[in-house]
Write a structure and sequence with these properties.
The chain has 9 helices and 17 strands. The protein is of the alpha/beta class. 47% of the residues are buried.
């Protein structure tokens, strides 16, 4: 096989990001097979056709099931709301298609279990599945993982992770599918909290075993949306509907290896646009990262002479840093979209090599179990095992 035909389901915010990745990946990275943007799937024929032309897809269809029998489609890329993930992923895997699915893996643990089981069945036939936690592919976070794996932080004691946004702080911001539990599963917890859960587990190479959390919905009613795109929309005058998800979630966590963690996910941090921040403290050092300065990793080497020791600002743009050698000269920074390109590259390489890509559906299921435990804890007011 010299090409890998891609069918993508969904074409809004994440669909645009994934399209960029499929277009760019074979032009900057030496891939063993070339991804081909074969077909885009969406519900509305006019909007899907327009999106296909704009984003670079060869064809547009309105029935995602129609791609499962096509010989020119080898991968199904799922960029739809969470309530559709399980049906599409299980059907695609059972049809012999490799699957890349956006995060969180599903809306419920039961759905995630079904998806992980389908991935296990498919793996026996050489069919691969991966969940799209794209922040793993930010070079600075990949470097953080490497430093922990090398023992540069010693024994990890603390993890502090927050994901702060403000796009719905205005109570007049209209309802979208992200504020509907049936479609989204949860609010800030699943939408952005899932990212910091995965990032923390990725960096530590460890899993969360126990949580204690709380959740809050600050604006319980919002204007009904007349139209919505990405994170913005317009409202229907005078008509409101219920917000059925959390606006903010906070929780404490214990890791299997003994580390303690604190996590906060909110879309009400006024002035914070996309502040995914994580700090890890160990017996021999610390590291800190902020996505709003995404090309930088702060590293403290606790073994240095105290007279000169301090946090070191590492600009993660050197050719020896993860993924960077395919791009620009040192100091020429990368952006949000590059993480999706790296994700596409890793997925294609795993499929071509016949190896299991990471994060797997099993990894996605682990994150789903953490989210579910936080929700249970928030109502029971007790610690919950994951």
């Amino acid at each position: 096989m010299t090409t890998l035909g891609i069918a993508m389901v969904g074409h809004e915010f994440m669909g645009a990001a994934h399209s960029q990745a499929w277009r760019v990946a074979p032009r900057f990275f030496d891939l063993p097979v070339r991804p081909v943007m074969a077909v885009l799937c969406g519900r509305d024929p006019d909007r899907t056709g327009a999106a296909a032309a704009r984003l670079g897809w060869a064809e547009a269809v309105t029935d995602w099931k129609s791609v499962l029998d096509r010989d020119d489609v080898h991968v199904v890329d799922i960029c739809t709301p969470g309530d559709t993930h399980a049906e599409i992923a299980v059907a695609a895997l059972d049809a012999g298609k490799h699957v890349l699915c956006e995060k969180p893996l599903a809306n419920t643990v039961d759905e995630a279990v079904a998806m992980a089981e389908a991935a296990d069945r498919a793996a026996l036939r050489g069919v691969r599945a991966m969940v799209g936690f794209s922040y793993r592919r930010v070079p600075a976070l990949s470097l953080a993982r490497d430093l922990v794996a090398q023992g540069r932080l010693g024994r990890v004691h603390h993890v502090r992770a927050v994901y702060l946004q403000d796009w719905i702080v205005d109570p007049a911001a209209p309802l979208s599918w992200r504020l509907d539990k049936e479609k989204a599963g949860s609010g800030a917890l699943g939408d952005i909290g899932a990212h910091i859960v995965d990032a923390a587990q990725f960096i530590l190479g460890d899993t969360i075993s126990e949580v204690s959390g709380t959740m809050e919905t600050f604006v319980p009613q919002r204007p009904v949306a007349a139209a919505h795109s990405g994170l913005s929309g317009t409202a229907v005058s005078g008509e409101t509907g219920p917000v059925t998800v959390d606006d903010a979630a906070l929780f404490l966590a214990r890791f299997t290896g003994g580390a303690l963690g604190s996590f906060e996910a909110t879309r009400f941090a006024n002035g914070r646009k996309n502040a995914l921040r994580i700090e890890v403290n160990g017996s021999a050092g610390s590291l800190a990262f902020d996505f709003e300065d995404m090309n930088v990793l702060q590293f403290f080497d606790g073994t240095e002479d105290a007279a000169v020791a301090g946090f070191r600002r590492i600009v993660v743009t050197e050719p020896g840093h993860p993924y960077v050698s395919a791009w620009w000269p040192a100091g020429h920074v990368l952006g949000y979209e590059h993480a999706f390109t790296h994700q596409a590259v890793d997925f294609v390489q795993a499929v071509a090599a016949g190896t299991d890509p990471a994060p797997s559906f099993a990894d996605g299921l682990q994150v789903q179990r953490v989210l579910a435990a936080v929700e249970t804890s928030a109502t029971s007011r007790t610690w919950q095992q994951v």
